[in-house]
Write a structure and sequence with these properties.
The structure is a single chain. With about 170 residues, this protein is α+β, with helices and mostly antiparallel strands. About 30% of the residues lie in helices and about 25% in strands. The strands form two sheets. It has a four-stranded antiparallel sheet with strand order 4-5-3-6. Helix 1 crosses helix 2 and helix 2 packs across helix 3.
Amino acid sequence: MEGQSVVVGISRSPVWDDAAVLDDRDLAILTALQDDARATYADVGAAVGLSASAVHERVKKLEQQGVINGYRAVVDPEAVGLFVTALIAAIPLDPHQPDDLPARVKEFPEVEDCYSVAGEANYVLKVRTRTTGDLEDLIRRLREKAAVTTNTTIALSIPFEGRPLRP
């Protein structure tokens, strides 16, 4: 069903270092749930060739093992007034300062994603704001609070994002 997603990731525990531990049925279940997180176990079972109870057990196992991290509604940012999407590369002013930027920016509700990256920047933040003026204010606050220099790229359009994982 539109508007729903399953947050799926491979745990960093040693048990999950190799994605091959998920069999084809697990991968098919993950695909079905990412396509429609509100599908019943019977619906998923019909799609993957298992009974509803077998799907239920496998989903429970995937949740317990941290493969499925959660369920949430996918909201259209513009429908809630967030018209500006930007990527902000953050570089510490003092390279010897503690590497705690994620903790320092967690309180900013505009920050949707925080990526630790290789390259010139240490982190790239995906942010959403109502206006470019709000973005400018966010950048000022980030520079002050996080003690970073920034390089900002504003998205003109977003052809797609949040694609389902297809291992």
